[in-house]
Amino acid sequence: MQTRRNFVKLAVAGLALPRLAVARGIDSRVGGVILGAQSYSFREIPRDAGGDAIGPVIRAFTAVGLGDCELWAPQIEPAGDRRFGRGAPNTPETQRGRQAEREALRRWRVETPMSHFTGIKDKFAAAGITIHSFNYSFNDSFTDAEIDRGFAIAKAFGAGVITASTTLSVAKRVAPFADKHRTVVAMHNHSNTSDPNEFATPESFAAARKLSPWYKVNLDIGHFTAANYDAVAYIKQHHDAITNLHLKDRKRNQGDNVPWGTGDTPIREVLQLLKKERWPIHAHVEYEYSGSRSPVEEVMTCAAYARQALA
Length: 311
Hints:
The protein is of the alpha/beta class. Helices cover 44% and strands 15% of the residues. The protein has a single domain, classed as Divalent-metal-dependent TIM barrel enzymes (TIM Barrel), CATH 3.20.20. The chain has twelve helices and eleven strands. The strands form two sheets. An eight-stranded parallel beta barrel has the order 2-3-4-5-6-7-8-11, surrounded by six helices. A two-stranded antiparallel sheet has the order 9-10. Strand 9 and strand 10 (257-258) form a beta hairpin.
């Protein structure tokens, strides 16, 4: 059996490949399966001077040799003030600061010229990376203008899919916009099965799909496993509704995120199923466990695991 150390060696050995592939695009397809990553995996990488997160994200994708990206919205948006971030004391000053930041973000989303977003697409394309999907998670605080602009931004990126961690109540608001823009919105699941408004169960996905013909599924197989559902069986039954997977390893019974191969998630079986059936479902690494090395090194390890599983 391959060890995590073996996977790192395999990944490091492949570091030079992306540099050769940039001119024609990074082809991270293995056995017919398109491997990519959710850019959230690189959330811990510092922004460049001036606050740009796109450059570091592109360099990370190039380093790990993955050419298919699900782009996490906070990485294209202005960085928040750490004084008002998660963990800050809930004082009146913090509340005012958060409200001001939220209003500023709303203006930024609605007023930023579309050329800014096509410029981001061009930067990814120059590095040989395709933006498959735009992760724009609508919530109750979104105005109609913000919802509408998310679809325009996705189109500027050339993304055919918006993925969203949201709720059923918000999905009802978003449905007319998906219909208007004729753009797929894929609902992302977590593992909170106690709240019927959350996406966590097969029934919640089914309820969303009744709201719009443009609604599909972004299946996180780690969260699905932690909620004690069978990812392989669900994919077999609903493959035509799934746009992309989040690959991670979690334990059953609401267990933790863990290094790949040490949890209960059937990562290998899922990837082999995609390879066998040739379904056009993109498989995206999402690094979320507590690793001991840099995000790039950990994603390299995950990607090597996936490639070996598909060999």
